Amino acid sequence: MKSIRQFGTRRRTGRASVLTPVVLRRFLYAFVLCVLLISFPAGAQPPSGGTAPEEDLEHRARLSLGQNVADYLFLGTLNADVQYSVHRNWTLGLGARYNNWTWRYRQDSQFESRRQAYYFCARWWPWYTYSGWWVGAKLQYQEYNRGGILGPETEEGDAFGLALGGGYAVHVNHWLNVDFGLYSWGGMTKYITYACPYCGQRTDAGTKAFLLPDEVRIAVQFIF
Fold first, then answer.
1. Count of domains observed in the chain
2. b/e map of 136-160 (b: 16 or more CB within 10 Å)?
3. pTM assigned to the model
4. Domain assignment present for 85
5. What is the CATH number for 200?
């Protein structure tokens, strides 16, 4: 419970990482680079149904590395995931997301949605892996600290649960996909709430169930 909270803005001895215009420009440059990468001509079209040729299945890609651009646009959340094809219709993977930034828009006002999350995921592809529609599930642990966005109350805690989602992978060429998807997740969290993001006044603590949006996915996926 130290990796995020030792930087906590509620702790008088801590120091938060502040999201500045310079940092935002760097993430914008990374986004433009991703757009340029996916602008190359496609080497294949998305599946329209039927069965893939056996020779294509024998030589199809098995490993993918992904970066979710939508996460970077949300307060610069760093992220990465890796998936491996274990069957014609199944991939298994691991992923992580990290954000320790705090946005300060006045001397005494700030908002944050800081977190570190780790997950194991599985996807089912109706046609074959890395192509077309998919549905997925994730077992996820998240340490979080969020507040000051919709109101002054701030909450920190440790959450564990199951995420379910689905999406569509657009095949750009033999080594690149653009992966679209949505996830929601639910589970249990052990939490503490505070009156505001920059004070240490506790208002509540305990354990509760939750059901929340988890991820909007617009990812660049490199395939090997």
1. 1
2. bbbebebbbbbbbeeeebbbbbebe
3. 0.73
4. yes
5. 2.40.160.20
